[in-house]
Amino acid sequence: MKKRIFSGIQPSGALHIGNYLGAIRQWVQTQDKSDSLFCVVDLHAITVPQDPKELHQNIRELAAIYFAAGIDPDKSTVFVQSQVPEHSELAWILNCFIPMGWMQRMTQFKDKSAKKKQFSIGLFDYPALMAADILLYQTDAVPVGEDQKQHVELTRDIAEMINSKYGDVFKIPEPVIPKTGARIMGLDDPTVKMAKSAEKPSRSIYIMDEPDVIKKKIARATTDSETEICFDQNRPGVNNLLTIYQLCSGKTQKDIEAHFQGKQYSDLKRELTDVVVDKLTPIREEATKILKDKKALDDMLLKGAEKARGLAAPTMNKVKAAIGLG
Ligand code: AQP
Fold first, then answer.
1. What is the pLDDT at residue 181?
2. What is the pLDDT of residues 97-136, one digit of tens each?
3. What is the pLDDT of residues 28-38, one digit of tens each?
4. Over 70: is that where the pLDDT of 87 sits?
5. pTM value?
6. Cβ atoms within 10 A of the Cβ of 57, count?
7. Active site annotation includes 289
8. Annotated catalytic, 112?
9. Residue 323: its pLDDT value, please?
10. Is 52's pLDDT higher than 90?
11. Which of 80, 86, 95, 228 has the most crowded Cβ, counting Cβ within 10 A?
12. At 37, which helix (H) or strand (E)?
């Protein structure tokens, strides 16, 4: 039997090339080998303030990009989290079992809340909703970045605790950290991660950026005063540009270094622009087409949500029966 995989992205801003290279690109490769669910996790996005109009637009755009990048709705279940109410329902039930101390240990909450004057209970409770997302589908594997590993470990602890009380309710999921899941850094500041919620548009190459915008952003990207073009963690700007080049071109580091030997940063930036534009243009064009047919996109997402609800129902019945509800 194929392994079941669950993964999602928050519609918390416009999607960038880091999200594509670090997540969606890998999903497209795994969908043939696994029984995959790919979710637009909009309930996670509202754990921080969102503008309603922008959120609505981001949800649709993210879904359109999933399909445009090659997620096939006949192979994978693609849906919007808030269209499957079982996610919130299970999250509430889990909330009533998770010891407070377990949640207080979550480092992402500590980091995110430290930067804010005020934050919601939802931000604190984010890992419980993530656990519900995963456990609802009896998921085998969760592809995540290093920063989300602690949340998957918490999910395992929650599942084991409930199973030990009530028998075999949940499958214990495994975190999968993709080997090639390089962290793409900001173009303007390569010491911070490229992020959807970053305020400066110059930080990120967005999937929906036109070629001339991509060209300008790469031309202004931070490098250094050295001359040699090589992969070097201690030179974060050049290293980041080369990493994006590597992931978009599919070439090896050795070949790339040989190719750029004796060349200048202006050559690297020009060639990088070409490979990025080649990679993103078909996705942008297809997503634009998908977004134009509002009803077709709504229908695809509703179909995905119905399929997801069908998969979630047996778990919800099992959980409710186990704890005495319903
Ligand atoms: N810079 C990145 N490089 C590589 N992969 C990245 N991902 C995110 N940023 C990079 C991967 O994309 C997915 C998005 O997950 P998410 O929406 O839950 O949130 P995130 O990781 O916090 O993404 P962002 O873009 O940084 O958004 P905001 O600004 O909203 O926090 C994950 O698979 C992640 O690894």
1. 58
2. 999 999 999 999 999 999 889 999 999 999 999 999 999 9
3. 999 999 999 99
4. yes
5. 0.95
6. 14
7. no
8. yes
9. 97
10. yes
11. 80
12. strand 34-40
Residue showing tokens 């993530």: 130
Predicted confidence band of residue 177 (pLDDT cuts 50, 70, 90): confident
Strand 34-40 and strand 3-9: the pairing is parallel
Which amino acid does the sequence have at 323?
A: I
Nearest residue to 315 (alpha-carbon basis) of 15, 102, 37: 37
CA–CA distances in Å: residue 143 to residues 1, 9, 36, 201, 208? 19, 11, 11, 27, 24
Which residue minimizes the CA distance to atom 11 of ligand 1?
Answer: 19
Instruction: Please report, as a single letter, which amino acid is at residue 39.
Output: C
Q: Candidates 29, 192, 196, 197: which one to mutate for ligand 1, based on the most atoms within 8 Å of Cβ? A: 196
CA distance 244 to 123: 31
Instruction: Write down the pLDDT at residue 242.
Output: 97
Residues 6+ apart with CB under 8 A from 91: 125, 128, 129, 131, 132
What atom in ligand 1 is closest to the CA of residue 197?
29
- Cα–Cα distances (Å) from 181 to 21, 23, 144, in that order, read 7, 7, 9
Closest CA to 249 of 274, 266, 232: 274
Position 267 pLDDT exceeds 90:
yes
Quote the ligand 1 centre to 131 CA distance (angstroms).
18
